[in-house]
Amino acid sequence: MKKRISSLLLAVFMAVGGASQAFAEEAAETVGKTGFAAFQAKLEAVLDVIDGFVWGIPTIILILLTGIVLTIRLRGVQFCKLGYGIKSLFKKNEGEKGELSPFQALCTALSATIGTGNIVGVATAIAAGGPGALFWMWFAALVGTATKYAECMLAVKYREHCEDGHVLGGPFYTIEKGMKEVTGFSWKWLAVLFAVFGVLAGLLGIGTMTQINGITSAVNDAFAAYKTNYAFELFGKGYSWATVISGLIVTLGVALVVIGGLRRISRVAEKVVPTMAVVYVFLGLSVLIMNATSIPGAFAVIFKNAFGFSAIAGGAAGWVFKQITDSMQKGIARGIFSNEAGLGSAPIAASAAKVEEPVEQGVVSMLGTFIDTIIVCTMTGLAIVIAFYTGPDASGVGDLKGVEITSAAFTRVLGGDGRSVQFLLMLCLVFFAFTTILGWDYYSEKCLEYLSNGNMTLVKVFRWIYIVAVFIGPYFTVNAVFQIADITNGLMAIPNCISLLVLSGVAAKETKKLFDKKDGLLK
Questions:
Q1: Residues contacting 486, CB < 8 A, separation 6+
Q2: What residues does 293 pair with on adjacent strands?
Q3: Which of 84, 148, 157, 406 could form a disulfide with 341 if both were Cys (CB 3.0 to 4.6 A apart)?
Q4: What's the number of CA atoms in the CB half-sphere (13 Å) around residue 39?
């Protein structure tokens, strides 16, 4: 088995290397003929086609179907047991096997979850899919909370305890052990695929480039007066000193933490995540309170756009289906990017929790989706809709991109010159994205550890490659970065959701067994 996995890894790296060489040759030819701008446009066009294929209707149906099936089979666990999850959050389980407390496991997962998706991802979803994308983010989050519960609970059930005392778990073991237990067939190949996609997602997508790109863009906007003070030009595009310096500082910070492994990452996460979440919620509540009269109009715009009513009203009935599918695609894709329900990442952190019963960590972990999307993303989305899609000046986001949309929205609805708001927003984004980089390093490492059968030397080499990816991240375009993140997210979600559908009966049985036991003790 080790030889087969090594051969598969070698084949993957050779394929990637061959594709990279061919791509580099084409890139050089294109740059030589028409310049970097033309090559960049071509790259984004290719990524857009791949993104559309990966996040097509079948994938959207699969993710939503998984959440709906689990919601039904688990009897609405995300609604009935939310209070129990909060109660279990600070429970002490010192005698149990594991590496983290339930709270630390949740914060580690949230550190990778609350990031640019909440501030930049929501903005790009609305810009590409209209205000209706926010509705589909909500819908995906509500059913996705059951998905998050099930995937984290199953990760604890099927985790492995290594000889040196550390724990390794996640969808790869859920697929390998759980699906074989239920079907009687080996699904090792599907587990390997998930792990490969997990490494790529962390290294090339959601873990590194999207986050550092969001950080440097926010810092660059905060120091807008110095945007034209270029440190250097690359392929005809200038990069300011703010971009270069902030990128170097974040890269150094990441290097100092990730070299210390899981415990250092969790210690940073449990301090930074709650603090910055409170700051951002305070900022968001200020926006909503000061514009309370505009909230009903914002909800009306969101629902009309989500179901194509605005297209019908405009006499464009032929575009209704396209408007709905665009809103669904961008809303669900960005929703998964933000809360990661169904993606299979959070279970990797959950599997390290010190808990006796898998269900207990499941109810704690599902709080992450509620906090991320229902609270944080909603505040961002409503601010953007109020600022750009309601009132007499409703004209859309125009040419604004990424964090510029969110920053302009908060400034417009709060008034003033926007400098203090922009600075606070920058701080939130910097710390959210920083902890996301740390969390995804951990996820990618665990996927690689599974693929390499515990080869820690390879994992240590990977850490340095990861740091390099963070370093070069600021010099990619926002659109290309988010397209790569969407693609890798979708490729992770597909095998994970298949396993959750197959194991939905196991999840329901485990859940019923624990809560029946607890109800019996209370009688």
A1: 51, 54, 55, 205, 333, 337
A2: none
A3: 148
A4: 17
For tokens 């598969």, the residue is 8
Q: Around Cβ 144, how many Cβ atoms within 10 Å? A: 32
**402-405 contacts, C-beta under 8 A, 24 or more apart:** 402/120, 402/123, 402/124, 402/213, 402/214, 402/217, 402/478, 403/116, 403/119, 403/120, 403/123, 403/214, 403/217, 403/218, 403/221, 403/429, 404/217, 404/221, 405/123, 405/124, 405/126, 405/127
Structure tokens at 460: 């240590």
Q: Is 347 helix (H, G, I), strand (E, B) or coil?
A: helix
- Three-state secondary-structure class, residue 98: coil
Total H helices, total E strands in the chain: 27, 4
DSSP secondary structure string, 283-298? HHHHHHHHTGGGHHHH
Average pLDDT (92-103) is 62
Structural contact between residues 168 and 160, judged by C-beta atoms closer than 8 angstroms: yes
201 with 207: CB under 8 angstroms? yes
pLDDT in tens, 68-92: 999 999 999 988 888 888 777 766 6
Which of 270-279, 311-320, 348-357 is least confident?
A: 311-320
Q: How long, in residues, is the chain?
A: 523
Angstrom CA distances, 125 to 23, 28, 112, 130, 335, stand at: 29, 32, 19, 7, 9
Q: Which of 216, 262, 221, 242 is nearest to 456 (CA)?
A: 262
Query: Taking CA 195 as the corner, what is the angle to CA 193 and CA 198, rounded to the nearest 5 degrees?
Result: 110
Q: In angstroms, rounded to a whole number, what is the distance separating the alpha carbons of residues 259 and 97? A: 24
- Give residue-wise pLDDT tens across range 109-142: 676 667 667 777 788 888 878 888 888 888 888 8
**Residue 498, burial from CB neighbour count under 10 angstroms (0-12, 13-18, 19+):** middle
By the 8 A CB rule, do 306 and 324 touch?
yes
**Burial of 319 per CB tally in 10 Å (0-12, 13-18, 19+):** middle
Domains of the chain: 55-517 (1.10.4160)
Output the six-digit token pair for 56. 């097509």
CB of 117 closer than 8 Å to CB of 433: no
Residues 6+ away with beta carbon under 8 Å from 84: 363
Distances (CA, A) of 172 to 61, 78, 154, 269, 471: 22, 24, 11, 24, 29
What's the mean pLDDT in 363-383?
A: 86
Closest CA to 208 of 467, 7, 475, 450: 467
Nearest to 75 by CA among 142, 138, 146: 146
- 229: buried, middle or exposed (CB in 10 Å: 19+, 13-18, 0-12)? exposed
